[in-house]
Please model this.
Amino acid sequence: AWMRFGVAAVEGGAFDLAARRVGIGRALLKGGDVKVNRSEGGALDLPGLVTGDDPGRVRRDVAQAQDKGAPWTFDVDAAEAEGVRVAYSDRSFGEPVRYTVTLRQARATGFRSAGTDPVRFSTSIAVEEGGMLAASGSFRISGEEADASVKLDRFNLKPLQPVLARRLQASLGSGELSADVKIAYRAAKAAPLLRVSGSSGERMPWV
Model:
């Protein structure tokens, strides 16, 4: 993956060496391009984007670092992106799945690396292949909880044909999805809980 931005700015903040704390008032990305590729083996070439199936891992890692005398904390009051173009390619399904989107507006507030309060976010995305997406909600950085309201407007499904081909003996000539849903996720030791409610409509001619 590589990234290039028209404007990358940081406003306000503090660096406290004694307290091992880095604080940022506002981080802004405006314009530019990001390319993200997923290999045939499923590896994502975006350093640091590694997740596991243990919802409490992040919190425990922070606690262990503090026990070892390295309690660095990172706080960001607000992070914003505007007009950033993201090109995504996934080759793990054989034929590449490609989408290119533009972040018309994206904002997250209240990030605290050692905090427990949820991070709040909102975004508006234009899909070059066709469609619009708008989402807002909150999540905890531990991965234990997330809530979102998501609206899709005529989202083009045709680029997902390689994914569908693994499950269906049919070819998707074209297709669009519109939806207005609410998503709630809660991690649990027994089994994660995912709830999706709302409405959707699709137009999917098969050939």
User: Anything to note?
Assistant: The first helix runs from residue 57 to 67. Residues 47-55 have pLDDT under 50 and may be disordered. Helices lie at 57-67, 161-165.
